[in-house]
Design brief:
TIM Barrel, binds 6-O-alpha-D-glucopyranosyl-D-fructose, 8-stranded parallel beta sheet, alpha/beta, Oligo-1,6-glucosidase, domain 2, 16 helices, 5-stranded antiparallel beta sheet, GH13_cat_dom, globular, 3 domains, O16G_dom_2, Immunoglobulin-like, hydrolase
């Protein structure tokens, strides 16, 4: 196993800088704030810090709209602050992974400004400019757009530019213009930028929507989607025609001949297991692992804001299939949360006072005992919950606001649309980190850009550190277990009780050791099926969330346990 890459036994911690810690009182988190809080991560025991984007940006999508790839957003600090932070992370034995957002740039990026100068600009072809279709409507209107694709943030995926009388493609907001990867100069500029960051000492990249970078060059209309307002362009850009070629080229140009082994993780909405196997097959040299979205889409109705209950059997079928599918070739990333997802304890657990800690630690146990690299999103280790947004006035996220406007225009009931935002809106993940009981939870001395969750009076890092039974200490124990027990890293995976709607059970096996993970996804006591109970009755407890006295026949509400044989 000596040749195994370091990231197979690593745990990654994601920081969303604007909501982590504010060092200068402007109400927005920054690099100085992160530096001052590194001990929190050291105590937890994580190996890698991933920073969501800290580059200069108009912040239309909180930094996922980058206007300069080689600098730091002034609100977050300077390049010198960045170098200090990187050095401090390295001194503590951790690594640093940067977000890489290269499907699109800000419309304020110098490349786009130049591209926008007109059809003769040498950078015109760096983006997707197309004339309108006058036969469909008045040029300049959405109806005459080059095709019928809708954007991820509602509305058309095309923005009209008056000066040149053409439209440009934006799969996300109009301020996030899609780069044209067909153009080799675009790819070379991105590779050079990536090498520049690696030379500065970063240890890897989390690649934003990297499976969307290759578009079918004809940009064909899509079939009517969802509410029928726009066409679904995804067949023409999800894992598009040249994406594997582009990632293999990037690997050759940026990563292949560097002395150090870096981490590359591709964020890939709608990626299939079949493509993921190709993306992560080491022999192909594309990326180390992908973020897939299947398990966080099982409770969607017509769309993400249309809330349906999760069926546990569906979750097990999905995660189990990914475990098996990437067992021989490739590697999984494991996550419940990130800055785009609602808080998992509110979504799949119970965030009420009685069972919040129990259900959060149960969910953590299940995830961290799977095979793959776990990602912890800031505040998840405290069992932070969704936020109580009183009205749409409290919502900041561009995706949620776009959906709200579109749904109201389509005649939906505002109260119900707001319920959807409360359950699924991305701001749930973006309320400030809860450090202590002080006014703004120790996040800032100013006014936070998004209000702190009032429950910081009880849910906060200071309280969690002081309580050995807290969610924080449970995460710490799970991370230590992964570092000390090779079965958690390397063991093969077998799902048990696949048809059970209440219990999640699986084993991991490596050499002479088998670990059983058994978890109750309900707030009721549940009997363990007799043969499983008998088989494991005397196996010692490695880790659990209800103390050390386990009942071999039943699981208490939201109980999780890991037992060992061999
Ligand atoms: O948030 C989502 C769930 O509805 C997705 O549509 C999300 O936009 C998608 O997963 C891509 O996410 C990434 O790229 C976006 C950015 O807004 C997200 O924050 C980022 O994680 C565009 O850069």
């Amino acid at each position: 196993r000596a040749a195994e890459p370091w990231w197979k036994s690593a745990v990654v911690y994601q920081i969303y800088p604007r909501s982590f810690a504010d060092s200068d009182g402007d109400g927005i988190g920054d690099l100085g704030g992160i530096l001052a809080r590194l001990d929190h991560l050291v105590g937890l025991g994580v190996d890698v810090v991933w920073l969501s984007p800290v580059y200069p940006s108009p912040q239309d999508d909180n930094g996922y709209d980058i206007s300069d790839y080689r600098d730091i957003e002034p609100m977050f600090g300077t390049l010198a602050d960045f170098d200090r932070l990187a050095a401090a992370i390295h001194e503590r034995g951790m690594r640093l992974v940067m977000d890489l957002v290269v499907n699109h740039t800000s419309d304020e990026h110098a490349w786009f400004r130049e591209s926008r100068e007109g059809p003769d600009s040498v950078k015109r072809d760096w983006y997707w400019w197309r004339p309108g279709r006058p036969e469909r409507g008045a040029v300049g209107e959405e109806s005459a757009a080059p095709n019928n694709w809708g954007s991820f943030f509602s509305g058309s995926a095309w923005q009209y530019d008056d000066a040149s009388e053409e439209y440009y493609l934006h799969l996300f907001s109009p301020k996030q213009a899609d780069l044209n990867w067909e153009n080799p100069e675009v790819r070379r500029a991105i590779h050079a930028m990536m090498r520049w960051w690696l030379d500065r000492g970063v240890d890897g990249f989390r690649m934003d929507v990297i499976n969307l970078i290759s578009k079918h060059p004809d940009l064909p209309d899509g079939e009517p989607a969802g509410d029928g307002l726009y066409g679904d362009g995804s067949p023409y850009y999800v894992s598009g025609p040249r994406v594997h070629e582009y990632l293999a080229e990037m690997h050759r140009e940026v990563f292949a001949d560097r002395p150090e082994r870096v981490l590359t993780v591709g964020e890939m909405p709608e990626v299939t297991l079949e493509h993921a196997r190709l993306f992560t097959d080491p022999a192909r040299g594309e990326v180390d692992m992908v973020f897939q979205f299947e398990h966080v889409g099982l409770d969607f109705g017509r769309h993400k804001f249309d809330v349906r209950p999760l069926r546990l059997t569906a979750l097990k079928e999905s995660l189990g299939r990914w475990q098996t599918g990437l067992a021989e070739v490739g590697w999984n990333s494991l996550y419940w949360n990130n800055h785009d997802q609602p808080r998992v304890v509110s979504r799949f657990g119970d965030d009420g006072p009685r069972y919040r800690v129990r259900s959060a630690t149960m969910l953590a146990t299940v995830l961290h005992l799977h095979r793959g690299t776990p990602y912890i999103y800031q505040g998840e280790e405290l069992g932070m919950t969704n936020a109580p947004f009183a009205s749409v006035e409290d919502v900041r996220d561009i995706e949620a606001l776009g959906h709200y406007r579109q749904a109201i225009r389509a005649g939906e009931d505002p109260a119900r649309v707001l319920d959807g935002l409360r359950a699924r809106g991305r701001d749930n993940a973006r309320t400030p980190m809860q450090w202590d009981t002080s006014e703004h939870a120790g996040f800032t001395t100013g006014t936070p850009w998004l209000p702190v969750n009032p429950n910081h009076a009880t849910i906060n890092a200071a309280a969690a550190l002081a309580d050995p039974e807290s969610v924080y200490h449970h995460y710490r124990r799970l991370i230590a277990l992964r570092h000390g027990e090779p079965t958690v890293v390397h063991g093969d995976f077998t799902m048990l009780l696949a048809d059970d709607e209440r219990l999640y059970a699986f084993t991991r096996h490596y050499r002479d050791t088998t670990l059983l993970t058994l978890a109750n996804f309900t707030g009721e006591q549940v009997r363990i099926p007799a043969d499983l109970a008998t088989e494991w009755a005397t196996a010692p407890l490695v880790l659990g969330n209800v103390g050390t006295a386990i009942d071999p026949m039943t699981l208490r509400p939201w109980e999780a346990r890991v037992q060992r044989k061999g």
